[in-house]
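Quick note —
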Amino acid sequence: MLDLPRGLAPIDLPEWVVERLETLEAPVDLVGHSLGGLVAAHVAALRPDLVRRLVLIAPPGMGAPRSLAAYAGPLLLTLGRSRPSFLARLTTDAFRAGPRNIVRGGRHAASTDIRAAAGSIVAPTLLVWGARDRIVPATEGAAWREALPDALLLVLPRAGHVPMVEAPDDLAEAIIAFREKPLDQLRDAVGV
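Predicted structure written out below.
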């Protein structure tokens, strides 16, 4: 597991990940959530030889760039409906990251358009969205599915933007099933 450095500019994160992956026995299965999913997609586009399978959980970047303010309402609504234990974890992470990095990451996620680079992603990809995601709506999954030639789209009905907290068993089951299926069978199942 790689924990992305919080002080590095988001635009530099894909290269940082590539440098780490080059030290491992490639190719690897790469999983990323939200901004981390956008980073993982950039890595898969930059260095297809390093990524065997890709799992993207609610990544931004496929729709038209939005202002950071456009995310504020959905984010506040999501936070208002979150469990206290999740809010405590989120608060701890926010203090570790600091306001500057949070805003910088949010701006990057809101303004990055990966559509041009998506055609370079050749790894079989599992796209996962929560049906209740207000921050990066599940409707964006269809645009990702259309842009990636080897992608499966799964929408988890009981999850929002953070399925690893809201529907952890469903998410784990989907990732395990995706990882265990032989690559040639995945290629035959695209679009199912």
